[in-house]
Design goal:
The chain is of the alpha/beta class. The protein has helices spanning 12-23, 37-51, 91-108, 121-132, 144-159, 198-209, 211-219, 226-240, 285-303, and strands at 4-8, 28-32, 58-61, 72-75, 113-116, 139-141, 166-167, 170-171, 179-180, 186-187, 190-191, 245-254, 260-271, 274-278. The chain has a six-stranded parallel β-sheet with strand order 3-2-1-4-5-6, with helices on both faces. Helix 4 links the parallel strand 5 (113-116) and strand 6. Helix 1 runs parallel beside helix 2 (37-51). The radius of gyration is 19 Å and the shape is globular. The chain starts with a strand and ends with a helix.
């Protein structure tokens, strides 16, 4: 029996995620939204799958009951960022949306693994965890995978090397305090410090912090959706295929890295049960100080809920 994957929010991120999951034949999909355009989007997708000879079923709905017994639920619903708007500006606007969505997830899909994408990401993941009452292993925030993909893209461009040769990781909150790890960045095993000056590395790390805002500026209306969708799908694949791969994910911390009762981007082993292990890697004093600062900001934002 195939997996059932529900996506709450049929905007650009949700719809692109649904199409990509279907194209990879990972399971049957339910796409939920409050507007009836969701029916047109899913009908179009289903016809595309027919052209690709893929058997995934895609259902559009405005009724939360249709997510019943989902294996994975992804929440992308919420107000998008606008030019000049920070992720924190979205806190109040999106809190109510997340609460309502999570109350329905708890009611109709109580055994699902929940992936939160709505910004401000780490705070919304924490709110989802508190609202659903799910085990912490089953609530994840998608951020570090996306931030690391952006970082890898900029590094590959700067060094003129294939992105597949770069191994890097971005931790901390999905926002201005994210932490790019210089001591854990390599190119075909070669430490990045041997290839780039620290000044250049920091410049690329700064561009990564502003990666979403840079796209928002060019789009004028809306925000990134291709890279976020692929980042979500990488997490979904890890869960469905029990890959047990290590990815940077926003997860509930209870003592790890010295933090408690917050969601923060850290390396996580992902498998069929969700967060199977939080990996505590060795950080330099500077990296730890930056992660501490990121956690402090997150704790302050959580108190605003």
């Amino acid at each position: 029996m195939g997996k059932k994957i529900s996506i709450i929010g049929a905007g650009f991120v949700g719809a692109t995620t649904a199409f990509t999951i279907a194209e990879r034949n990972l399971g049957d999909i339910v796409l939920v939204d409050i507007v009836e355009s969701v029916f047109g989007k899913t009908l179009d997708m289903q016809q595309a799958m027919s052209g690709l000879d893929i058997s995934s079923k895609i259902k559009g709905t405005t009724d939360y009951e249709d997510i019943k017994d989902s294996d994975i639920v992804i929440i992308t619903a919420g107000f998008p960022r606008k030019p000049g708007m920070t992720r924190d500006d979205l806190l109040n606007k999106n809190s109510e949306i997340i609460k309502k969505a999570c109350e329905n997830v708890k009611k109709y899909a109580p055994n699902s693994i929940l992936i939160v994408v709505t910004n401000p990401l780490d705070v919304m993941a924490y709110l989802a965890y508190k609202t659903t009452g799910f085990d912490k292993k089953r609530v994840l925030g998608m951020a570090g995978v996306l931030d690391s993909a952006r970082f890898k893209t900029f590094l590959a461009e700067s060094l003129d090397v294939p992105v597949k040769d770069i191994d890097c990781m971005v931790l901390g909150s999905h926002g201005d305090s994210m932490v790019s790890l210089i001591n854990h960045t390599t190119v075909s095993g070669t430490p990045i410090k041997e290839l780039l000056s620290e000044e250049k590395f920091n410049s690329i790390a700064e561009r990564t912090k502003n990666g979403g805002a840079e796209i928002v500026k060019y789009l004028g209306s809306g925000s990134a959706y291709y890279a976020p969708a692929i980042s979500i799908v990488l997490m979904v694949e890890a869960l469905i295929m029990d890959k047990k791969i290590i990815l940077p994910v926003s997860a509930m911390l209870e003592g790890e890295y010295g933090f408690n009762d917050i969601f923060l981007g850290v390396p996580v082993k992902l498998g069929k049960n969700g967060v199977e292990k939080i990996i505590e890697i060795k950080l330099s004093d500077d990296e730890k100080a930056k992660l501490d600062a990121s956690a402090k900001i997150m704790a302050e934002n959580i108190r605003k809920l």
